[in-house]
Write a structure and sequence with these properties.
Length: 540
């Protein structure tokens, strides 16, 4: 996993192909958004912000005024140049449960879940959309986690994003996105996550990074603010300021506000304690017990809240580090303050879905038709990049080969010019049959290269003549002559010192059995000294 993260960090997928999505968290009061971008320094949060939603536009996660919500989303789209988005759907409108299914050969898990889904949610199977993820399996059964939502709610969100011209790549439950952000990837303990928001508090329990239980409490930060405003007869804004200024740590400065805040927090504590006890009674194994509580959400930074819950519930409570799976806060400074980051846990978790790993699954409940269109979009983009890459390589190769082509063309032109000049200077060659000349030359070359000569004189004959040479005889030339059908004749030319020397040489040749006849014309004896002679030797 570390190698995969390092590879993605230094060799990120091209942005056009990655289809990275901006996380969008829609609540009853606001829309928060942001996108994690992979850089050489790691992931960084970019294009983040918050837009308020007027009262009544979204109520308990259900869209009541579609056009107003579309208008807000269009504003965000134009401001941040968004296209693909990952969306967290409200827990109030979603259902999460685990299901154990018998393991059978060639079983279709989707059909098996569909047959049993009505036993776990108050909806008919035909009226809901669901998706699942396999948790574990053995030889007999398969344990799956199922998330479902009413089609009417899902269609409302799909319509809003379609009209806002935004393309959702995933719809997932908010609790899973939060867990992906605040729970370290290597964490295996069971953890309770408390998302203390403005209008409600989401409670979820996660083990090994996977959410197994969710519930929504109707108390939120606005309720605490209203209590303070009512007790002190002040405006909502003044009460909000006072809430964050004093919190639960400033009892000595203003005990009255401590009591007002404590009344609301006590209700929250009691509800959390119920969930804590419920989980403990239904999961009795030691490694399944809740190890600690993580606080996040806009009002989780209320001073003294974590300490109060830890003391009253007798369990470790800490504020979330939403950057735990994004960057090392010891070496890097996040893009926003710690207090502000607590309200962006869902957004960060959604954006991490672009870089999710097996221990932190994304259970996407988008309809299959939209998933298929996204897959086609991906392959279309892949084909486009592949075509562009091939085009670039071909263009680069052309640029690299152009100098060689240019020089070869120059050389070819030079050769043609020289050939034209040669033909001009030798016009007779143009009138001859070049092919015939080539054939004649080739035949002569064959003759010259032919090592087989039927008219050879052995070294023995030359040795015999040389050994027969007497004193006063000097050789100047030896000629071999043979016509077809005739005897082989060897002409020996030379100079004799005197007539006796020539006569003695003739006698020696006559006595040699290698020759059938020796002819020495009488004219060779005309001179007294330095007689030039020619002897005709007929070789046997």
């Amino acid at each position: 996993m570390v190698m995969k993260r390092l590879y993605n960090q230094y060799f990120p997928t091209p942005k056009y192909l990655a289809m990275n999505s901006c996380g969008i968290d829609i609540s009853d009061q606001s829309i928060k958004y942001g996108e994690l971008i992979m850089t050489t320094s790691g992931l960084r949060l970019s294009n983040y912000g918050k837009e308020k939603i007027p009262d009544g536009v979204v109520v308990s996660g259900k869209i009541e005024k579609e056009n107003e919500l579309v208008s807000i989303l269009k504003k965000i789209k134009e401001k941040e140049k968004l296209h693909f988005v990952r969306v967290a759907l409200p827990e109030e409108q979603m259902y999460l449960f685990t299901l154990s299914l018998p393991k059978t050969k060639d079983a279709n898990l989707s059909d098996m879940v569909l047959l049993q889904i009505e036993e776990h949610i108050p909806l008919k199977a035909i009226d809901c959309t669901f998706n699942y993820d396999v948790i574990s399996e053995d030889n007999e059964s398969i344990l799956v986690e199922v998330i479902a939502i009413a089609n009417s709610i899902l269609d409302g969100y799909l319509s809003v994003f379609e009209k806002a011209e935004l393309v959702p790549t995933s719809f997932e439950i908010e609790a899973q996105a939060i867990a992906r952000a605040v729970i370290p990837r290597e964490e295996e303990n069971t953890i309770m996550i408390v998302d203390f928001g403005d209008a409600r508090t989401g409670v979820s329990i996660s083990k090994n990074g996977r959410v197994f239980l969710t519930t929504t409490l109707s108390i939120g930060g606005i309720d605490l603010t209203n209590m303070i405003a009512k007790n002190f007869s002040i405006s909502f804004d003044e009460a909000e300021k006072m809430k964050h200024e004093y919190g639960l740590n400033q009892i000595d400065k203003n005990p009255n506000i401590f009591g007002a805040i404590l009344n609301g927090i006590s209700v929250l504590r009691d509800e959390l304690n119920k969930q804590y006890l419920y989980w403990g009674t239904h999961n009795t194994k030691k490694d399944e017990q809740i190890n600690h509580i993580i606080l996040c959400g806009g009002d989780a930074n209320l001073s003294g809240l974590a300490e109060y819950l830890e003391l009253s519930m007798n369990i470790k409570v800490e504020n979330a580090n939403v950057w735990t799976n994004v960057l090392d806060t010891k070496n890097d400074v996040p893009e926003m303050s710690f207090e502000e980051s607590l309200s962006y846990a869902t957004v960060v978790g959604l954006s991490l879905g672009n870089y999710s790993y097996s221990k932190q699954p994304v259970i996407n409940i988008l309809p299959e038709g939209i998933k298929s269109s996204l897959l086609r979009e991906y392959w279309m983009r892949f084909s486009t990049i592949l075509f562009d890459l091939i085009t670039f390589i071909a263009f680069s190769a052309s640029l690299l080969l152009f100098p060689a082509y240019f020089f070869s063309q120059t050389k070819e032109n030079l050769v043609e010019d020289r050939l034209a000049l040669f033909n001009k200077e030798n016009p007779e060659l143009l009138n001859n049959n070049i092919n015939k000349m080539i054939d004649d030359i080739n035949s002569k070359i064959v003759v010259l290269n032919n090592n087989t000569n039927p008219y050879q004189v052995s070294d023995k004959i030359f040795g015999t003549i040389l050994s027969t040479r007497t004193n006063g005889i000097t050789f100047s030339q030896m000629l071999f002559n043979k016509k077809v059908g005739e005897d082989s004749i060897l002409e020996v030319h030379g100079i004799a010192k005197d007539r006796n020397s020539l006569r003695n040489f003739k006698t020696a040749l006559d006595s040699n059995t290698s020759f059938s006849s020796v002819e020495l014309p009488i004219s060779n004896f005309l001179e007294k000294t330095d007689l030039p002679f020619t002897v005709l030797l007929k070789i046997k």
